[in-house]
Specification:
Layout (H helix, E strand, L loop, with lengths): L15 H20 L3 E2 L5 E3 H8 L4 H6 L1 E4 L5 E4 L4 H10 L8 E10 L11 E10 L5 H17 L4 E7 L3 H17 L6 H9 L13 H5 L10 H17 L4 E2 L11 E9 L7 E7 L3 H4 L7 E7 H11 L9 E6 L1 H17 L5 E3 L6 H11 L3 E6 H5 L2 E6 L7 E4 L3 H9 L8
Parallel strand pairs: 1-5, 7-8, 12-13, 12-14
Antiparallel strand pairs: 2-4, 3-4, 5-6, 6-11, 7-9, 9-10, 10-11, 14-15, 15-16
Helix pairs in contact: 1-5, 1-11, 5-9
The chain binds histidyl-adenosine monophosphate (HAM).
């Protein structure tokens, strides 16, 4: 036997036991986004490295130390996408889709970041990414937040809280940055190694530090909110009013700065109450400058992305999804019966396309087949046997109730299955 090949650390298989939750999340999301007028877009998993450097920022953790970058056979530097916004903006520009037009777009797929894997943090992870391009807001910001709130409701996920902040304009952020650097420099001896590294490149990220020893220093730091320009201040006030009007609760967190450089004004994050460090399930904000920065017509935009693995974990914890099981398990008894069972079952599948039918494949004695039927979870077994076929009938045996075995003529099979299952065939989740 050859040596086993290991999976890559931080890259997960999604196995059939979990796939129901994934599919449920995907179909709820797809339906809801359609109801809000969002259209799906699919962009490549790989882009020129330059795109992410320019969009996300050289000094961010993502670009600085987490990208999967390689040189392809043609000598180009390419990168597996660490997020979807940059690629979507690139697609809008490349396809000439801006020019005063507006777009509501969403995208589902895997992203790649070379982070230290732990529960809820992976190197390949999936996002549902949602972008509204062409609106200044704050109405569109509010609607996007309402959309996400409605999704949690539909999925039955509770206990998420919304954190909200405004980053103002690039200018107000620059002023703030200067003051913040002054402040931290004055207390440099209290900075941990991570924060000292960030002081030069990305001092706002120091505010995100999870290190408990850093918290008193962070609490004393100047607040971005005090540096906001008048227009951003008004934009933020209106957004809060709109959210209040819709009854959406939020918490203003003046230290919420986000890890990607393209944001301005509105930023938000939905976080779980759970104590783990990986508590953001959905985050985003406004990026009015990005499109022009990447060479497109200046166009305002706002969006967010949610982490599918993190939501699936909440979904699985919140409620048990209906197990996947066949409606009918077909037990085969005898030589002639094998071929006849396959034929009969295909006929049944023609007549009842919604029915889940599992035929015993690969033989096995009667007892073993019944054990499999029982294990499958099916509520009903059909017995197709040489004896029964000789009499022109099939036997039906309920597996989860005390009602006894019965028989039906071959031509009445579909109707008899309906009756035994309590027609119509049960819906599947
Ligand atoms: P982000 O905050 O980097 O934003 O990621 C969005 C979400 O993806 C996070 O809230 C989290 O749920 C999930 N996520 C991020 N990293 C990981 C990881 N290593 N493992 C598992 N889940 C993860 C963005 O990516 C922006 N592009 C969002 C956006 C769209 N802003 C505007 N438009």
């Amino acid at each position: 036997m050859g040596e086993q090949i290991q999976a890559i650390r931080g890259m997960n298989d999604v196995l059939p036991a979990e796939i129901g939750a994934w599919q449920h999340l995907e179909s709820c999301t797809r339906e809801l986004l359609g109801q809000y007028g969002y259209e799906e877009i699919r962009v490549p998993l790989v882009e020129h490295t330059e795109l992410f450097k320019r969009a996300i920022g050289e000094h961010t953790d993502v670009v600085g130390k987490e990208m999967y970058t390689f040189t392809d056979r043609g000598g180009d530097s390419l990168t597996l996408r660490p997020e979807a916004t940059a690629g979507i903006v690139r697609a809008l520009i490349s396809n000439g889709m801006l020019r005063g037009q507006r777009h509501k777009l969403w995208c589902l797929g895997p992203m790649f970041r070379h982070e230290a894997p732990q529960a809820g943090r992976y190197r390949q992870f999936w996002q549902v990414d949602v972008e509204a391009v062409g609106w200044h807001g704050p109405d569109v910001d509010a609607e996007l937040i309402a959309l996400s709130a409605r999704l949690w409701q539909r999925l039955g996920i509770s206990g998420l809280t919304l954190q909200l902040n405004s980053l103002g304009t690039p200018e107000s952020r620059r002023d703030y940055r200067t003051r913040l650097v002054e402040y931290f420099k004055a207390h440099e001896s209290q900075l941990d190694a991570d924060s000292q590294r960030r002081l030069g490149g990305n001092p706002l990220r120091i505010l995100d530090s999870k290190n408990p020893e850093m918290q008193p220093l962070i609490r004393g730091a100047p607040l971005l909110t005090d540096f906001l320009d008048d227009e951003s201040r008004a934009h933020f006030a209106q957004l809060r009013q709109l959210l209040d009007g819709m009854g959406i609760a939020y918490e203003v967190n003046p230290r919420l700065v986000r890890g990607l450089d393209y944001y301005n004004r509105t930023v938000f994050e939905w976080i779980t109450q759970s104590t783990g460090a990986q508590n953001a399930v959905c985050s985003g904000g406004r990026y009015d400058g990005l499109i022009a920065q990447l060479g497109g017509e200046p166009t305002p935009a706002v969006g967010f992305a949610m982490g599918v693995e993190r939501l699936v974990a909440l979904l699985l914890a919140a409620r048990s999804l209906p197990p996947r099981r066949p409606d009918v398990y077909v037990v085969v008894n005898g030589e002639r019966a094998g071929a006849e069972a396959l034929r009969l079952v295909e006929q049944l599948r023609d007549q009842r396309p919604g029915l889940r039918v599992e035929v015993n494949l690969g033989g096995g004695n009667f007892k073993a087949q019944f054990r499999r039927a029982d294990k499958s979870g099916a509520p009903l077994a059909l017995i197709v046997g040489d004896d029964e076929l000789a009499r022109g009938v099939v036997a039906l045996k309920p597996l989860r109730s005390d009602s006894g075995q019965s028989e039906c003529g071959l031509a009445q099979l579909a109707a008899a299955v309906d009756a035994a299952l309590g027609a119509p065939a049960p819906a599947h989740g």
